[in-house]
From TrEMBL, chain A:
Protein name in UniProt: Xanthine dehydrogenase molybdopterin binding subunit
Entries under Pfam families matching the protein: Ald_Xan_dh_C (PF01315), MoCoBD_1 (PF02738), MoCoBD_2 (PF20256)
Matching NCBIfam families: xanthine_xdhB
Keyword tags: 2Fe-2S, Iron, Iron-sulfur, Metal-binding, Molybdenum, Oxidoreductase
Residue ranges occupied by any Aldehyde oxidase/xanthine dehydrogenase a/b hammerhead domain in the UniProt entry: 25-133
From TrEMBL, chain B:
UniProt-listed Gene3D superfamilies: 3.10.20.30, 3.30.465.10, [2Fe-2S]-binding domain, CO dehydrogenase flavoprotein, C-terminal domain, Uridine Diphospho-n-acetylenolpyruvylglucosamine Reductase, domain 2
InterPro entries cross-referenced by the UniProt entry: 2Fe-2S-bd, 2Fe-2S-bd_dom_sf, 2Fe-2S_ferredoxin-like_sf, 2Fe-2S_ferredoxin-type, 2Fe2S_fd_BS, Ald_Oxase/xanthine_DH-like, Beta-grasp_dom_sf, CO_DH_flav_C
Start and end residues of each 2Fe-2S ferredoxin-type domain: 3-88
PROSITE patterns attached to this UniProt entry: 2FE2S_FER_1, 2FE2S_FER_2, FAD_PCMH
NCBIfam families the UniProt entry points to: xanthine_xdhA (TIGR02963)
Keyword entries, A-Z: FAD, Flavoprotein, Iron, Metal-binding, Oxidoreductase
Molecular-function GO terms, alphabetical: 2 iron, 2 sulfur cluster binding; FAD binding; iron ion binding; xanthine dehydrogenase activity
Protein name: Xanthine dehydrogenase small subunit
FAD-binding PCMH-type domain sequence ranges: 192-363
Length: 768, 483
């Protein structure tokens, strides 16, 4: 039977994104595309023009009098609490009261008949400020004695001071690592539709519907059961829609309830970039002790982060920087500490990698330091320090699933690394204007939310009497193919064609108390929850079929399109119809929680991660030493996603993450004026990679032999974040090309991002 | 005698008696018509999510080009055929080959940028059936994708090119019918308003000259690649607007000069550059992205007076002149004298830039360099145009102009002095590279620091010498796409 029917879209098959045809025809609906309710109003935010100041006067008369204006909302108009702090710090006002704490902070909201009217009206506000002491960057904040936005963390194992003292060689350095704007193509947006009683429905582009639900309830002063949050898809998220849209959803909801009309809010791109958080930039002081063979003996480091004016997710983000301060290397004695600095800038937030990249890149900088000090290929130093199974991380988790030696060997061969490195050295030895660099860097990334309770998920599956399946889960679709992969799991479970499984919007009405679709966990958690629901229904169907078709239960099997009762094959539809008539429950709610994980932040010990995902990349670049421009000549990537649920979608994640990671470290630069105004707040000034910035040769491969050693969904591994850090290979290769102008006597030690300017200035510094 | 604003939108004729000069095409599509396939990503012409095709009649027939609907004013679509993603279909009415290839090669993830990519690639597929990976990248300079890393999109574009089928495409098949409909649209002056927001579309250049004598402070809108942002970003009142991109399209090539009408777009000028100033073709293809090059005009780039405009540095180096017209009177000004100070140009009320005259100094050594944070579709930190003539082994004349180094595009007087009369050799260019440091006091901003700008300004002179002296040495980065 099985051989006769071919079905599409089972687990582990290359399957197109479920919305691909809608994407290319423009029929995929994003929040701004939804049919607009009659009488829809539009809200727009008025933003501060002062980095830190007391509001001395706020004249909104001209705003109120502007054409089309219905209302102007200030903090006093919020019925519940004026706070959207996701971590419960109560430090994230929706609308500033008395004091503004960054340039671009929302101060009021205008509600008008059209978006254009609301926007024009918002520009008419006259607000005066009495300037207060401001600090914009982490070291400035430290010097000014600013406090931490949240509790710092120290990870410690052994005695770093003693280890450093005893080490034959020691190197100290400081590394500035820039932030990054998400630049999701679809900006922040929410549309609230009022209902009867205290009800309100919010359509919003969010990675975290349950949090929006809870925030809106708090701000309206109602119970969560009155708020419904819907998300069909986002036009990109990358962490920028994990907490940042809460504010917009709340403003829309407040206005909608107040006027009993639907209200939409969509900031212009410049306001979106000014008023929402970004990847944290860091200044890191590191010291590494090592021996003459390049083995790391001790590491001591301090990670100072620009957190912005409030905590937001800075706690877990700066924690994760420390969790990845070792990247893939064993540090015998280690002390690393975070310093989540309060600054008068927008509150920084989640962004793909969630602090991890800012840990990993420091580990790689230390490897570089050691290699240059010893005159060795950094790859040798990397190999000498890779974790061996059984060794402990700085947070005392035992590494048990190390596969990097095998990945290194495979990638070194497939990329022809050794010959190409020699060719690069030979080329540079000629001393021309164009210099080259090559680097192979790994990533080891811990999978699970470090907030252990987030590692849970729910699902809801209905099978209708015609045999069609409706699938719902708590994850959100932002382009990563989550819905497709979870649907494949369900199709596989029922042995039916993927087209039978309807992927529905995410809604808090169907699955409650969901976690953010973040930390690369979407498929791991929701795939398992969906499988749980499917298994429940399957169990009922097995019981039913065994009874109805008179077969032992262990001989009832799901085969393509059919269910076997012993030797009898019954079409799936027929079974479902019969099951309905027999009053079998054809709906189930599934649930999953990640096993084995625990984390005690107070002691800095535990097993925060269920498993590690690994990857490695080789990048080769050319640098123009006259201008600092560069090109990525070639990149070879080998990445570990365990047994991929959908290789083609996973490959797309790896490619996209690599390019986004190179953007972070090359052309994407955030630049503030002395007054604290972000001047790179639109694509005209903030440059994300274009097609012509991608590697000129780009070979991306999944490690198809890898299998998750833990019982993850179908033994696959998470893919969203880990490959982002492979962009570090490009950064290191650029550093090598720069270092060549001084014959590699010292590393280039470029701060990130390595803009053409930083590259040229680095070259001039080394040339003396 | 004035008429309605008329254009074709996909397969329908649109006639509007009420329209404002600051109404954008994107808002018309998304808000007025609820055609939501076209997306807004940035509202400043930098991301390409709003890409649509605009077809217009030219001397060579109906020409379709991808443009940014977000900064394209509705009034500038008068007499044109606007084609959105909703209109795209294959010969059998199903998916278009571009769409099929994008699905098969997994070219979309979040999908928000996708309609814009599809439309840009559609424009390329129609206009250049032989496009290779490099041509595809050039066509996609104006499209941002944050998810895919672009690789699958390039593969999809190559596959669609290979699939062919241009001859059966709807816009090809219907070309004559569409052209006839556009030709049938009245050519008289259009003068429409929405409230106080007024848009005037002159019938011809003489009509424009007359209008400018009547109106005190109209906003002249050519490609709108800058004026568009005055509206979408700065919320400025630009009424009354006079739309001129359909005017001054003429080009005349003589033995000694290129005479280019002020309304000629970068894209329209590109073949001329390729033929007569091939040294500048690479520079030319790095002016903004394709959509902007299809809208932006050389006249607009000059009239606008930006200190970092892309064309002035090279045009000043070439000793270009412009013809300014007021009523029936015309005067010629050397381009270098047109830029008086930051934000101040030598253009009197009622005057407009009509023609750009570029001398063709066939024996000269010419170069144009643009340095920016990102290679493509970025505003330059430093741009340089250079034109040298030699007599024997000596430099007879030197014109070097920079953008991004001062409040206006400006010649490097000291560097020029250091070169003229000297032997064409390394010593002269080293001297010029030192001298150029004293020529400018650049600013630091988000694009680059003063130190970097100065260092690059000097090094570009060194680069030029290396290119001249060691043609076989790799002096420039190689951006070719490999296997």
């Amino acid at each position: 039977m099985k051989d006769e029917i071919s079905i599409k879209g089972l687990a582990h098959m290359d399957t197109a994104h479920d919305s691909a045809a809608k994407h290319v025809t423009g029929r995929a609906e994003y929040t701004d595309d939804l049919a607009e309710p009659q009488g829809l109003l539009h809200a727009y935010l008025g933003l501060s023009k002062c980095a830190h100041g007391r509001i001395t006067a706020m004249d909104l008369e001209a705003v109120r009098a502007a054409p089309g204006v219905i209302d102007v909302l200030t903090a006093a108009d919020l019925p519940g609490v004026n706070d959207v702090s996701p971590a419960g710090h109560h430090d994230d006002p929706i609308l500033a009261e008395q004091e503004v704490k960054f340039w671009g902070q929302p101060v009021f909201a205008v509600v008008a008949e059209t978006r254009d009217q609301a926007r024009r009206a918002a520009a008419l506000a006259k607000i005066s400020y009495e300037p207060l002491l401001q600090a914009l960057d982490p070291m400035g904040a430290k010097a000014a004695g600013m406090d931490y936005v949240t509790d710092p963390l120290t990870l410690r194992r052994g005695d770093a001071a003693q280890g450093l003292a005893a080490a034959p060689r020691r190197i100290k350095g400081r590394f500035g690592i820039g932030g990054q704007d998400h630049f999701y193509l679809e900006g922040q947006i929410a549309m609230a539709v009022p209902g009867e009683d205290e009800d309100v429905t919010i359509n919003v582009s969010t990675q975290h519907p349950s949090e929006v639900q809870h925030m809106v309830a708090h701000v309206l002063g109602v119970q969560s059961h009155s708020v419904v949050v819907n998300v069909r898809r986002m036009g990109g998220g990358f962490g920028g829609k994990e907490t940042q849209m809460n504010l917009f959803a709340c403003v829309a909801a407040v206005a909608a309830k107040k006027w009993n009309r639907a209200v939409k809010i969509r900031p212009d791109r410049d306001d979106d970039m000014s008023a929402t958080g970004k990847r944290h930039d860091f200044v890191v002081d590191y010291e590494v002790g090592f021996d003459d063979q390049g083995r790391i003996l001790a590491v001591d480091g301090d990670w100072y982060a620009r957190c912005g004016f409030s905590a937001d997710l800075s706690g877990p983000v700066t924690d994760r920087a420390l969790f990845h301060a070792d990247n893939a290397y064993y540090y015998p004695d280690v002390r690393v500490s975070s310093h989540p600095m309060r600054t008068n800038t927008v509150s920084n937030t989640a962004f793909r990698g969630f602090g991890g990249p800012q840990g990993v890149i420091v580990a790689e900088r230390m490897i570089e330091e050691i290699a240059y000090a010893l005159g060795r290929d950094p790859l040798e130093i990397r190999k000498a320090n890779l974790y061996q199974n059984g060794q402990l991380t700085p947070y005392h988790q035992e590494v048990t699933d190390q596969i990097l030696p095998q990945m290194f060997a495979e990638l070194e061969a497939s990329s022809d690394y050794q010959a190409r490195r020699q060719a690069v050295l030979d080329w540079n030895a000629k001393g021309g204007v164009i210099r080259k660099g090559i680097a192979l860097t790994p990533v080891k990334f811990g999978i699970s939310f470090t907030a252990t309770w987030y590692n849970q998920a729910g699902s809801l599956i209905h099978i209708y009497s015609d045999g069609s399946i409706a699938l719902n889960h708590g994850g959100t679709e932002m382009g990563q193919g989550l819905n497709t992969k979870v649907a494949q799991v369900v199709a596989e479970a029922f042995q039916c064609d993927l087209s039978r499984v309807k992927i529905t919007k995410t809604t808090t009405e169907k699955v409650p108390n969901t976690s953010a679709t973040a930390a690369s966990s979407g498929t791991d958690l929701n795939g398992m929850a969906a499988l749980d629901a499917a298994e429940q229904i399957k169990t009922r169907l097995v019981d039913f079929v065994a009874e109805r078709w008179q077969a032992p239960k262990d001989q009832v099997r799901f085969v393509p399109g059919h269910i076997m009762a012993g030797e009898t094959a019954i079409p799936f539809d027929e079974v479902i119809k019969a099951a309905y008539m027999a009053r079998i429950h054809l709906s189930a709610a599934g649930f999953y929680k990640t096993p084995k994980i625990h984390w005690d932040r107070s002691t800095g010990r535990g097993r925060p991660f269920y498993y590690f995902a690994y990857g490695a990349a080789v990048a080769e670049v050319s640098v123009d030493t006259l201008t600092g421009e560069y090109v990525i000549d070639r990149a070879d990537v080998l990445h570990d996603v365990g047994r991929s649920l959908n290789p083609i979608i996973d490959k797309g994640q790896v490619e996209g993450a690599f390019v986004q990671g190179t953007g972070w470290l090359t052309c994407e630069e955030l630049w503030w004026s002395e007054k604290g105004e972000l001047k790179t707040h639109a694509p005209s000034t903030y440059k994300i990679p274009l097609a012509s910035d991608r590697p000129r040769v780009f070979n991306v491969k999944l490690a198809d032999w890898s299998e998750n050693t833990e019982r993850s969904i179908k033994r696959s591994k998470a893919v969203g974040e880990p490959p982002f850090m492979l962009g570090i290979s490009v950064f290191e290769a650029i550093n090598m090309a720069v270092a060549s102008v001084a014959d590699y006597r010292e590393p280039a030690r470029l701060d990130a991002p390595a803009t053409p300017e930083r590259v040229l200035m680095g070259i001039r510094r080394l040339q003396g | 005698m004035t008429g309605d604003l008329r254009f074709l939108l996909n397969d329908r004729e649109v006639a509007l008696s009420s329209a404002g000069g600051s109404d954008t095409l994107l808002d018309f599509l998304r808000i007025d018509r609820r055609m939501t396939g076209t997306k807004e990503g940035c509202a400043e012409g930098d991301c390409g999510a709003c890409t649509v095709l605009v077809g217009r009649l030219t001397d060579q027939g109906l020409r379709y080009e991808p443009v940014n609907a977000c900064i394209r004013f509705l009034a500038s679509c008068h007499g044109c055929h606007v084609v959105t993603v909703e209109h795209l279909r294959g010969p059998d009415g199903g998916l278009h080959p571009i769409q099929t290839a994008m699905i098969e090669h997994h070219g979309s993830q979040c999908g928000f940028c996708t309609p814009g990519f599809v439309m840009a690639l559609y424009g390329l597929w129609m206009s250049n059936p032989a496009a290779d990976a490099m041509a595809i990248e050039t066509a996609l300079q104006g499209n941002l994708c944050r998810c895919t890393g672009y690789e699958p999109i390039i593969k999809a574009a190559l596959a669609a090119q290979a699939a062919g089928g241009q001859a059966m495409d709807a816009l090809t098949v219907e070309r004559e019918v569409v052209a006839a409909k556009l030709r049938a649209m009245p050519r008289e002056r259009v003068d429409v308003s929405k409230g106080a927001d007024r848009a005037i579309i002159p019938a011809d250049t003489d009509d424009l000259a007359a209008l400018l004598l009547e109106h005190q402070k109209p906003t002249l809108v050519a490609g709108a690649t800058d004026v568009g942002l005055w509206v979408t970003k700065f919320l400025r009142n630009i009424s009354p607007t006079i739309f001129i991109a359909h005017l001054m399209k003429g080009v005349e090539v003589t033995e000694t000069e290129l005479k280019i009408g002020a309304g000629v777009t970068y894209s329209e000028a590109e073949p001329l550059i390729a033929e007569h100033l091939p040294e500048l073709l690479d520079y030319w293809q790095r002016i903004a992205g394709w959509q902007v090059r299809n809208m932006g005009t050389i006249g607009g780039n000059i009239a606008n007076g930006s200190p970092i405009g892309d064309t002035p540095p090279v045009l000043i180096a070439l000793d270009a002149r412009i013809v300014l017209r007021k009523g029936a009177e015309r005067r010629e000004v050397a381009l270098q004298d047109y830029f008086i100070d930051y934000g101040k140009q030598d253009r009197a009320p009622g005057e407009f830039v009509e023609t750009i005259i570029i001398p063709l100094n066939r024996g000269a050594k010419i170069a144009g360099y643009k340095i920016s944070k990102r290679r493509d579709s970025d505003i330059s930190s430093v741009a340089m145009g250079l034109c040298l003539t030699l007599e024997g082994d000596k430099i007879a004349s030197a014109r070097i102009a920079y953008g991004g180094m001062a409040g206006t595009p400006k010649r490097a007087a000291g560097a020029e002095v250091a070169l003229v009369g000297q032997v064409f050799g390394k010593a002269a260019f080293e001297a010029a590279a030192r001298a150029v440091l004293a020529d400018f006091t650049p600013l630091s901003d988000m694009r680059a620091s003063a130190d970097y700008r100065s260092a690059v300004a000097a090094n570009l002179l060194r680069r030029f010498w290396l290119e001249q002296s060691e043609p076989d040495l790799p002096v420039r980065l190689n951006y070719a796409v490999g296997e």
